[in-house]
Amino acid sequence: MAQRTSPTERQRRLGSELHKMRLAAEVSAEAIASLLGVDRSKISNIERGLRPISPERLRSWACHCACADEAYVDALAVMAQSGRGWWERYRGSLPGGLLDIAEMEAYAVRLRAAHIVHIPGLLQTVDHARAIFGAAVPPLPEREFELRMVHRMERQQVLTRDHAPEYFGIVHEAALRMQFGGRSVARAQLEHLLHMSELSHVSLRVVPVSGGAFPGAGQTVVYAEGPVPQLDTVQMDSTHGPEFLHGEAQLSKYRMQLEWMERMSLDPGDSRNFVQDILRQL
């Protein structure tokens, strides 16, 4: 199998999990290389996501490391055989981090998001997204602007496809009151939120301003649950692009933050009423 030059976040994650498995079992890279019949440098490249590994070889790796968690190994085997997704059409035209977000969402079994100033990207209208991208500094080139728009709208299909992941969105009142694109765009955005919240697998929770302070108030967080807890991922936005975290301490921290915000938020029915009240004020 050919070596990769730019592995995706999912490919890097697979390699990282194999690396952790090997270290936990105190098995040397030389021993794994001998088992698989390859030279040691290829083991290093597999663990960095630079070289693919077949599901069969992955299972041999796990067996040699005495990993008895069948669900975890099965999930890794699925990662090893994952093909190219729709987002690959944008490779070379958009930043790789945006494609990694789409890939993460596509394979998640549950998505939990917390947004303070922005409406979650998966719940944005076209005009709201256009206003967000239009505020980029420096301004985006026209072609990239349009590609980002199309890419974001295509990402949203993850919530309307067959076997869509459960989506749990926590939105602060501040995001509901931001009039990106003006009054009419803001109204249409709130109406769209209400529409999406009616889907059986989508839960919208609002944190009112009166709720006061809470951990992570300045961050946008998406917690993507994998098929097993070991493969959960936290994705955070920053001005230089998305960041992906998957250390156990990091996952635990952000689970606690989201649970705190959930306790502070209104229940789904009261959240819908809250959005409707703001909509009537526009």
TrEMBL record:
Transmembrane segments: none annotated. Pfam families: DUF5753, HTH_31. Residues 18-58 form the HTH cro/C1-type domain. InterPro entries: Cro/C1-type_HTH, DUF5753, Lambda_DNA-bd_dom_sf. CDD domains: HTH_XRE (cd00093). It comes from the Bacteria. This is Helix-turn-helix domain-containing protein. It comes from Streptomyces gamaensis.
